[in-house]
Amino acid sequence: MRDLSCGDRRVYLEFFIRRVQCPWCRAVKTERLDWLANNPFFTKRFAFFVGRRCRDCAIKAVAEDLFLDWHTVKELDKQYMSEQLRRASQPKPRAIGIDEISIGRGHSYRIVVSDLIRGRPIWFGGQDRSEESLDQFYAWLGPEKSSKIRLAVMDMWKAFRNSTRKLGHAPQALIIYDKFHVLRHLQDALDKVRKSEYARLTGPGRRFIKGQRFALLSRWRNLALPGKKGLKLLFNANKRLHTAYLLKETFEQLWSYEKPGWARRFFDNWRESLKWQRLKPYEKFAAMIEKHWDGIVAYCHADNKVALGFVEGLNNKIRVIQRRAYGFRDEEYLRLKILTCMLPKL
Q: Region 75-83: what's the mean pLDDT?
């Protein structure tokens, strides 16, 4: 049985396990040793050592480093993550974040639900991003715990809202639309303006727009000096893109207000500034915000200031996990990876 190494030497333990016959049922019982892993060829502390390595490295790299089979490392990692979940407290969320992630090729999605107060994912599942898939989460959580959910942060996907509003799920929860999903729609509108301007212009006028997509979609404060210089040249040459960029930069101010009335006044003024600008994608975006206003302005209340960036940060972390593994064929393994990525090491 393999144990933790000592320096560059692998350590193996040799011992005897006692087996006794029950005098009443005549069944043979094997001695249970708490320090053994589920795989009887390894100690539990060695299995946990492998699991800790797998948090930061790919399975193949760990297997090569420890002279183990790829499948053995995977099973030891599963045991480690299962123990992490067992030791973690049972989820009793008061504020949840709901989002979908893409797995595999094509439009294949799974739903991830997070506890925004404790800062960790608590559920992964479903067959797609439909209403029925999210119903599975509320069935798993149970009516008692679901009735205590106060806030539900999600994108503007109708299926998530309908499932949350169902009787027996969380109809009492206040729905807040995720700021980063809203801003992504605004970025898409800006990109459409960029494409239309590029198609409208001919000759030398195009050279200021070409290659500026990344800079236009980025925040001004995040740009390096070359990016800022390129945008200044573009804005001097194209007033419409300059206006569209300024409108994109100022819209994020909407989430800084603590009174719904102030937020409404800001949005009305922002929408009024679209007049005579001939920015059709922005007008469609403003109409979408108007339609979903209740879920956006709900964040302005002081009691509802939850971490909206957690869901987006978790999505980035999941994408890193997927890229490191070049995709997952074992969905249960992916589920364990996601649910334990924010838990402390054992």
A: 93
Give the helix/strand (H/E) hosting 20: strand 19-21
Which two tokens mark 312?
């987006």
- The C-alpha atoms of residue 240 and residue 193 are separated, in whole angstroms, by 8
Separation between Cα atoms, residue 223 and residue 67, nearest integer Å = 45
The DSSP bridge pattern shows strands 109-115 and 120-125 to be: antiparallel
List C-alpha distances in Å: 41 to 53, 77, 82, 241. 19, 15, 19, 65
Sign of the CA dihedral running 207, 213, 219, 222: negative
Residue corresponding to tokens 């605004």: 186
pLDDT tens-digit readout, 305-340: 888 888 888 989 988 888 887 767 788 999 999 999
Q: Could you report the per-residue pLDDT of 209-262, keeping only the tens digit for each?
A: 888 899 999 999 999 999 999 999 999 989 999 999 999 999 999 999 989 999
The answer to whether residues 163 and 189 touch, using CB atoms and an 8 Å cutoff, is no
Identify the helix (H) or strand (E) that includes residue 274. none
- CA-CA distance, 316 to 321, in Å (whole number)? 9
